[in-house]
Design brief:
single chain, mainly alpha, 3-stranded antiparallel sheet, 4 helices
């Protein structure tokens, strides 16, 4: 359906824009006979403007659809990451490291750090450093 919408949008715009331009140029040309101007106005009103508007609307709706899909994807990824976060906390008595979250959540280390920093502020977590210098976040749940 999306592909059909894209094809139709392109077709309507490829028809509407050039022919609208030609009709407008024909109307504005002082050397054009009045009968031709009337024909150009009719073509503009009946064919080219509706085609351009329909193509524009289809293009706009495709952009809106893509935005909604991206928002749903981000929300789904965030929900999955929250579940992974809670699972790790549950398994490790409230402790979690960047590496654990990055690995199990299948995200980058910087993204895991950002997530854990936000969660630590939100849930008032503390930090612990082990003998090897690894930092773990301690959440009191």
């Amino acid at each position: 359906m999306k592909l059909i919408k894209q094809i139709l949008a392109v077709c309507f715009l490829l028809f509407g824009i050039p022919f609208s331009t030609l009709a407008i140029l024909d109307i504005l040309n002082p050397k054009t006979p009045s009968q031709s101007k009337n024909g150009a106005v009719a073509a503009l009103v009946v064919l080219t403007i509706p085609s351009t508007l329909l193509g524009s609307y289809l293009s706009w709706s495709l952009v809106q659809q893509k935005k909604k899909e991206q928002a749903l994807l981000v929300a789904s990824e965030q929900k999955q990451l929250n579940l992974v976060f809670l699972e790790i906390l549950e398994q490790n008595s409230g402790r979690i490291t960047l590496l654990q979250l990055a690995k199990k959540g299948e995200i980058s280390i910087p993204k895991a750090k950002q997530y854990l920093d936000e969660k630590s502020k939100e849930l008032n977590a503390s930090f612990e450093v082990d003998e090897e210098g690894n930092i773990s976040y301690r959440f009191f749940v």
